[in-house]
Amino acid sequence: MTAVDVGCAYAVSGLSKTYRTRPRRGSGDEGDAQPVVGSANAQSVVGSDEIDLRIGRGEVFGLLGPNGAGKTTLVRQLIGLLRPDAGRIELFGHDVVAQPRVVPDFVAYLPQDDGALSDQSTSVALETTARLRGLTRSQARSARDETITELGLEEFVGRPIAKLSGGQRRLAGVGAALIASRPVLVLDEPTTGLDPTARRAVWAALERRRAELAVTVVLVTHNVVEAETVLDRVAILEHGRVIANGTPGDLKAMVDRDVRLELAWRHDPPDADPLVSSLRARAVEHGRRWSVRLPADEARDALASLTNGPLFAALDDFTLSTPSLEDVYLTLGGAARDLERT
Amino acid sequence: MSASTVAADSVAPNAATRPTFAASFGAIFTGQLARAKIAAIPIFLAATLQSVGLVVLLKGLVDKGNTVTEQSVVAGSSVAVVSFVALNLLAQRFGALKASGALDYYGALPVRPAAVVTATAAAWASFTIPGAVLVAVGGAMFYQLPLAHVWVIAPVVVGAGISLAGLGALIGLVASRPEIATVAGQLGMTLVMFLGIVPAHRLPGFVQAVRAVVPSTYAVDAFAESFKHDPRWTTIAADLVVCAGVCAVALALSAWAFRRAVTRR
Description:
Mean pLDDT of chain B: 89
Oligomer: heterodimer
Structural class of chain B: mainly alpha
Largest sheet of chain B: none
Helix content of chain B: over 70%
Mean pLDDT of chain A: 86
Shape of chain A: globular
Distance between the termini of chain A: 44 Å
Low-confidence stretches of chain A: 24-33
Number of strands of chain B: 0
Radius of gyration of chain A: 23 Å
Order of helices and strands of chain A: EEEEHEEEHHHEHEHEEHEHEEHEH
Largest interface: A-B, 64 and 47 residues
Number of helices of chain A: 10
Distance between the termini of chain B: 35 Å
Number of helices of chain B: 10
Strand order of the largest sheet of chain A: 7-8-9-4-10-11
Strand content of chain B: under 5%
């Protein structure tokens, strides 16, 4: 082993993975939006394409992208469950590709699916997971109780996980990932389906581990608000490639000349109006809701005309907002499908 | 959260302590047993009622005094309880876990695949104990077979349970789709039931050959032998040794299949 960069948790270079897949049969988010080569019977899907990343120790690092961008494929390689075709992954200096079994000694992983725990109660699932991370029975029980209190799981801790609501299930899974502390947490969409209170409890738990134990967090998300709120740095993925990588502030600075104008029409606006047709040409339309990105001065003028003229009667609601990571994503050529904004 | 990162410590973190095989086995076994509290009643009822039904219905077909057939019916029905849960339901369970990617949970923990499949197989085998014992004792009383050696059901359930659970896990883990795992598990259970209940000498030659390679056969034969007034203990012991061998092979194969299912998604 060469000299270890102790400030670095993960160092990834030239990571590529293409896998063959049969035609989709139902579920699974990977693949549908990725470059596909081949016949109808067997297709090659590019999961990761020459990915380079450096994730610092104690950093909250995000992987942002819509479904099918290759987030889960990348994460499964990071935790040693998927072998890359090419490239290197180092975890605290250990070669993950050559020795994938070293990963569980350092990393706790929250998979997207919690089916392995679904037939147990949250209480049993937490205790079992803690013991499987090497804690004794009594240590596991106290870790279980601490996790229950920390995440506020008391209300449903004795019920089978399969019978909980979607948000409660996810929270139970997060508990299993957090229990018996590891220096790295890799969490695949930990807050999907959580209510705002639970989401804040998860973010606070992550922050506590980072502040007290220098825990590194790799957080997969397709939620723009989460990305902007909790991440130190973020890599934006599309088609298996990292199309941007930096702090949320740095990335937003790339598009800071633009603002977003959101319009909700009461009824269809007149196409003949030159302002309407000019906005429509640049808008992403969802029914009568339009989202238009344009330079700040132009947006101000458009809004003035809309609110002072006859078009105001057709307008139900409007908002003007500064750029978000979603705008960065769109500017870089992403399709922005499935990105969440709440 | 602030954008700054915490100053790195001067040394890289140490690897956490890995649990021993025994500790992993214990944790998974206990966790799966806790599952029994949730699922016990439906599993117990479905698996047991099916075999109770067989025992009662076949009474009308078995000639009075045909002891060999009566022994076979009771022994086969008892092992059928085991195959319902261990083979059929566990194949479904692992098929579903594999299809949904839920095996990643275990794949990312510092546990060996052998510990996962062995502990799960042992736990699911133990779910079948009450039903198998009920059918064994109740069936023996119903057919007026001697109960002196009915305790043989204990090693039979352990041997048949773990080997069939190992095979059930293997089916679920190698099946390319959960539907295939379900169908294969059900067919396997039907085979165990049919070959267990129908006495060997009543089967055509080629079916007897199939019977000889189905692992549950040896469990059924060992248990049927115990209903004799003077059982041949060497036969029972030999059958149980075969069961133990099948357990080892089934668990080794399912551990291999587990590793493959986790890393080849």
